[in-house]
Amino acid sequence: MIATIILSILIFGSASYVIYSRIKTGKTCDDCKTSCPVKTQQSK
Question: Which residues of the chain have pLDDT under 70?
Fold first, then answer.
C-alpha cells in the first residue's frame, strides 16, 4: 500500500517536472514560447 503511494508520487512528480520544464524554458517572460496570461497583461 505504502509502496504504491510512493511510486505514484514519484511518477506524477517526475511527469509534472518534465511538463513544467518544457513550458518554462526561458529565464524571463519574453523567452517563454507559450502564451501565458502574464504576457498578455504586459502587452496591453
Answer: 24-44
